[in-house]
Structure formats: structure tokens, C-alpha cells
Fold each of these.
Amino acid sequence: MNEHDFVFMMKRFIDQLSTNHAFDVAVIYIPMSFAKYRESSNPANDFNLHDALKLYATDKGVKLQFVEERSTKFSDQCKVLWGLSTSLYAKASGVLWQPVTLSNDTAFVGVSYALSRNKGTCIGCSQLFDSTGTGIRLLLRKINDPGFYGKNPYMKCDEAYEMMSVLRDKYYQWNPTNRLKRIVCIRQRLLLKMK
């Protein structure tokens, strides 16, 4: 079995989970013996198990949490368990922390990227939520003309503006009574090059 066969098998499990609503988060445990499926053994093949399954599961409405055996071996087990428990709680409830001061006129957007240099594609993943951390909406979209700062992709102004407009519209669909004054962008990589 190679990494693509393994992903195909995992996608079938995700398909089964997508029809079962008796769970909040599916945990995928990757033992050391399965580490060979994490990335392609062929450097020319641009593959990452985590990204492939997360994107697929998101499309199917299934929340995933990866746990790798190597991450459970850290000496600070309290830190490992804290990280896992907060991740599971946030994914299950959609809320982790709430700010002390709530602002109904502010929305937050988290943005990250998946980049395939071999296929020439860059996917932007945007998460939209309000000041309480609720109302999360996920938007995946291909970035047609990514710019690069070093080897990190970013959206150029026109695509960033379009993405923010779509997210603003989604926010108003979810919460039509609030009028936004601000959208705060949380960058996980270099995101936007302003003119």
C-alpha cells in the first residue's frame, strides 16, 4: 500500500462518518509505523496526508483531529494533553475562548494556505467568526494568481478584496442584524501584500 491507497481508504471512512451524526470530532491516530503515509516518498510528488484528509473532511462536514504517536512521546505530557483537549473542545463546540469585551461590529477572519508547487495551485482557507468565537464559516478557494514573498504565498489585493467581500456577505447571511465596522485578519502565514 502506498500513501495514495492509504488516503483513498481513509476517505472511505470519512464518507461513512459523514452520514453518522453521533460524534463531534473524528480522531485519526497515526502510529510511527504509518508515518510513511504522512508524505510522499517521491520528492516530485507533492502530497501531505494531513492536508489531503482535512480538505476532504471539511467538504464532507466532518471535523478531524490528527494525533501522531511521535507527538505523544514528548516529556511534557501536560502540555500534550492540554493541546489535544483544547483542540478537541474547540472543534467540537466551535468556541474556545471568548474575549472579555464583546464587540458586535467586529468579525475575525483566520487565513492559511495549502500550496502545491508541482500542480501550480494555491488554496486559501478562510475561517470567519464573530467576537464571541461563534458563527464560524469556512471558505476554501483557489487563488488564481498568488504572489510570493520568499517561498510563502499571499493573495494580491484584488483576490483579497474579493475574498473579504464574500466573507462579509456570509457574515451578514448568518447575522443580518449586526453591521460590521471592522474585519480583523489573523494571519497564519504572510497573507496580503497591500499597495
Amino acid sequence: MSYCPVAGIDVSKRFSDMCILSPDNKIFAQEKIYHDETSINRANALLQKAERLFFSKPVIVMESTSHYHLILFQFFSEHGYDVIVVNPLQSNSMKDFSIRKRKTDRVNAFKLAMMYQTKTLRPSQIPQTATRALRQLCRHRAELLNDVSSYKNRLTALLDQTFPGYDKVFSDVGGVTSCAVLVRFPTPTILLVEEESELVEVIAAASKAGYSFAKKKAGLLISAAQKAQTLGIHSCADETLIVCTIQMLRTLSESVLQIETAIDNLLAQIKEMRNNVSLLQSIPGVGSHSAALLLGEIGDISLFKKPKQLAAYFGL
């Protein structure tokens, strides 16, 4: 039993149920919290009343329910409460409290509070705000990478029509060197009317692989461009579409780098996060960014006592 009051909050989309327990596990108050300023302030008044009566600020325990818990988490954190956010699948002990079963609102709020009182919960060593930030950054990075892949596919489709054989010269059509070539020579016709020396110079500068490499690639491109004059499907829109697609690719790639820098900076600030990432990287095939993504979803590996608990978290 703890020596402070505890409030369990069962979160749902439209409203949440709060149950405040006294230090001796008796129900002190129950309140339905609608997610508006008036209702949240009323809940805060009850918490303050418990603090005055029991001479200790209540600890708040709430479920991680999509994004719906974030408003309450931010409000109570900013008002000085110790807020613990748990996932319903975080531990087998939650199963004992029936948290994994169908919600029963006030009953679940009581059980959440009891989980803290009976020491079932272990506090995370990583701040909730940091976990949320890492999760947001990693999810946004994943979305951007999907966009990069989508625009590379668009570029490939355009080149298959206008410049057949181009992908045999540059297998990664969205790569740095390929994009540098296409921005300067977006169609076979433009490439063929320019001096070969200009093409070699662009390839050498972008690839940093030397003159011999650039000369060889230029020769292959010229040969492919000559064949494309006959085999390709040409349109007055080709140049614009290819250049615009590459501009989007470059913007997206730059955004990915910015997100990755932000992730690295966040990890550098919090030792526990770095340790968790290092632990995840010990798994074969898990790199630094995959480890960060996993950590953002898990929150804190130390909260899982057994491998089965982690598997349950991911629904395995």
C-alpha cells in the first residue's frame, strides 16, 4: 500500500472516468471527466481536495488510449501531478485486473488505481513527453519514407515511358547521381543535344566516383537515349513532370534527414533511451532507426519483466 492518494483514469474518446483512492485503498471520489476545460478543472478540484485531506499530492494512473489521453496527461502534468501512462497490454498483471477485457468505465478506473497501490505498476525511467516525441518523430519518418518510395515509383514509371533503358544505367533512379542527371537532362532529346563533356561533369560531381566512372556512365546514357528516340513515348509534359518529381524527392529526402537529426538529438539527451536503443540493436537485423521506432512504440523496455509481456504488447 502506498502512502499517497491515487487516481485511476479510464480514458475513452468522448469522456473519461476518474476514481480517487485514499492511501488505505478506499474510494474517496469518482468523477466523469468530459474533455473540456470546465470538466477537467472540476476533476482537478477533487484531486486538490484529496491532497489537502491526505497531505500528499495524488498520483494519477491512466491508460494509453490512442491520442485521447494526451489532453489529460498534459493538463495534469503541467499542474504538478505525477502521471503514469500504461498500455492495457503492458503486463500480465493487467490481465489479472481484467483491463484487457471489455471496458467497464468506473470499474476500470478503480482497477487502474489499485494497480499502483498494489505495486503492480513499475514507473518508467523515460519521461512520457520524451516517449511521445520519439514516437511522433519515428512515425513521421516512416510516413516520409513511404512518400519517398511512392515518388521513386512515379519517376520510374515516367522513365519507363520516356527513357526506356535508363534504369539499366542507374538502377536507383531516385538516387543522388541519377537525380542530378535528370534535372539537367530530363529527356533523351535534351541529353543528346548537349555536349558529352557536360554530362560527364554532372555525373562526376554528383557521384564523386571519378572521371572514369562518369565517362563510362555517360556513354551508356547516350546509347540508351539514342534508342529511346525510337522506343520511347514522348510528350511535351515529360520535362516538367520529371523535374517536378525529382524536386519532390529531394524535398522529402531532406525532411527525412531533418527528422533523423531530431531523433538523434532526442536520444542524446536521455541516457535511458540510449540504453534501450542499444539493447534493441543487439537483436539481429535491428538498426538504429528501427530500434528508435520500436522504442517509441514500446515506451520503456524495463517495464516488461518477461519476453511474453512484450510479445503481448504487440499482439503476438
